[in-house]
Each structure stands twice: as C-alpha cells, then as structure tokens.
Amino acid sequence: MRRSFAVRAGALLTGVLLSGAFTVLAVSAAPAASAADGDKGFTVEDPRITESSGLAASRQHPGVYWTHNDSDDGPYLYAVDSATGKTVARITLSGVGTPRDVEAISIGPGNEIWVGDIGDNLGGTWKYVWVYRLPEPKKLVDQRVKATQYVVKYSDGARDAESLLVHPKTGRVYIIDKKEDGGHLYEGPAKLSTSGANIFKPVAPVDLWATDAAFSPDGSQVAVRGYLGGISYAWNGGKLKREGRLDVPLQRQGESVSYSADGSKLMYGSEGAGSSVVAEDAPAGASSSSKSPSGGGGSNASGDGGGSSAAGGVKAGAIAVAALCVVAFGLRRLRRRG
Questions:
Q1: How much is the pTM?
Q2: pLDDT of the residue at 181
Q3: Which of 92, 126, 130, 186 is deepest in the core (most CB within 10 A)?
Q4: Which of 242, 239, 260, 229 has the alpha carbon at shortest distance from 301?
C-alpha cells in the first residue's frame, strides 16, 4: 500500500531531525573549476536542461560532465563544461526507441556512455525498462550518435529505479532500485545481449531511498545518494560494505551524483532550471591517484559517523528549508502522477 505524501514527508523530516546528517547548501554557486585542481562545482546555464537527473564525469574530456533531462525531452545528452556551466555539445541518440523515463548516466570502460531509461513513475508497473550504450564522441559538437539498446527485466518483478552504475574495470552494469525503506543493488549479466531480455538479480541491500549512485574511478567504492543524505560503500567484490555517511548538500531536489574524473570529489546535482552542481570531498581512497582529498567538508570514511564539523549540527533555518524542499518535491511528484 502506498503511503500518503503527508506520512512520507513526516518520516523524511523525522529522519533529518534525528540524524542531522546534511549540510546547509551554500547560497551562491561555487567558483568555476579547472581540470588541473579537480572540479569545484558549477551552475548549469543551458535553459534546455530543466530536469537534470543524471551526472557523469567524462574521462576523455577533462572538466566536462554529461547530463540529461528526466523525461519528455527526447533522446538527448548534454555535455556541460564545469568551468563555465555552458553546454558544449548536445548528442542525439539514434537507433533507440522513444525514451520513457531517463534517470541515470554512467561512463564505462573504453569511454562508453551508458544511459539508464529505468525510471517508473507509475510505481513499478512496466514489465521492462531499457539501457542504452554509445561511444563517447571524441569531438564535442552537436551530433547524432548511434546507440545500442538493451531490454532489462528484474528477477523479482518490475520496480522503479534511478541509479545506474557501470563498473569502470569490468564494464558490468548494475542498477539500484528506489524504495523509501531501502532497496537493493541489482547485477546484470556479465555481457548484455540485444537478442532478448537481460535479467538483473539482487545481490546486496542498500540502506537508502536512492536517487543516484556512482563508482569511484578505480572501482573500489560506491557512493549512493538520496534526497536528504548519502552512504559510502566499499565495493568489496560486489558485497557492499558500508563505510559511512556522505556530506550530501541540501538541494531543491537532489537527483544525481558523480565522482570527478580524478576521484577527489563527489559532484551532487539537482533538478530545476539553472540548477547547481555542488562539489564535496570524496571519501579517502576513492581517488584514481595516490593523492588524498584535501580541504574541509570531507566525509568521514571510517565508521558511520556524521558529516563535517562545519555543519555544526542541525539548525532551525536548515530544518525549515528541508521541510519546504520535501513539500515542494512531494507536490511535484503528485502532479506528475496525476
């Protein structure tokens, strides 16, 4: 039985009050980033991007992030320069059907882009969903790129999902379903097939109402985010081991997360016109180099301890903002389902 919005909102706010595990979102956008020192956050300037629902750092084009709209936009991907927030290329996918609810994007081995048309706003009633694969363009200009489309089914029935992960070493595809009381990591076949349905099976529990997730560049860690919090896991050969909370910023509708290309930062995105992508230090050990993340605001990677000391606990103003965010999000979802 689906819980009413009021009940869900109350549960979310209670969790916030008890845990205090979020950081107040900065009022202004972070300064422009350069590829040399890692990304520092940016504001999406393209007026066509109003429902950014996925985020993935390019390995081939330093400082560029791939994103897409949630639904009703078409088969488009946008390459955004984090130094300016401007779109430098729009890719039109060819060779696929009409997307239904695109929710996630990931970069796999060989600079291949994977797109998850895996959302289900009807509460998990579609018998199958789709995953698309395409080569990342070597030149960032508006163009059409042929993609391969895969049919995905779950071994335990239809479900809603917003998190697609592709392991950077093995190329294996994973999905995390979206459930209020926590979901599961689903593993796809070692190699996806275009000749029939690819069955994804649950392999590990995930203790979060997940809106996105990402592998670290070296594949050793997984970051999972929700609307009001996040969890860092050690990959542990696919047997997720919880390491601690993530410093997830308070956003209007937190929908996406990606490691920066060097693994030193976690980049958190949200929906809405002119939305901000906020950078936080990634947990230690996630970097693709031996260099440890520096600076304040990093998350505690040992134990389940909370976020940075700068948060200073939960404050009344932040609670009020959280309440407004939850209410606005709930009303928006209700309108969409109506």
A1: 0.78
A2: 93
A3: 186
A4: 242
CB 76 within 8 A of CB 92: yes
Please, what is the Cα angle at 225 between 17 and 88, to 5 degrees?
A: 130
Task: Give 36-63 as a 3 state SS string.
Answer: CCCCCEEECCCCCCCCEEEEEECCCCCC
Which residue has better confidence, 307 or 214? Answer: 214
CB 134 within 8 A of CB 147: yes
Strands 76-81 and 64-69: antiparallel
The secondary structure of residue 197, as a DSSP letter, is P
CA distance 288 to 263: 5
Question: What contacts 53, CB < 8 A, 6 or more positions away?
Answer: 67, 68, 69, 70, 102, 103, 104, 119, 162, 212, 255, 256, 271
User: Are the beta carbons of 41 and 267 closer than 8 angstroms?
Assistant: yes
Which letter, b or e, does each residue of 83-99 get, where b requires 16 or more Cβ atoms within 10 Å of its Cβ? bebebbbbbebeebeeb
Rounded to the nearest 5 degrees, what angle is found at the Cα of 44, between the Cα atoms of 89 and 123? 95
d(CA 22, CA 244): 13
- Which two tokens mark 88? 């430098």
How is residue 46 written in tokens? 């393209």
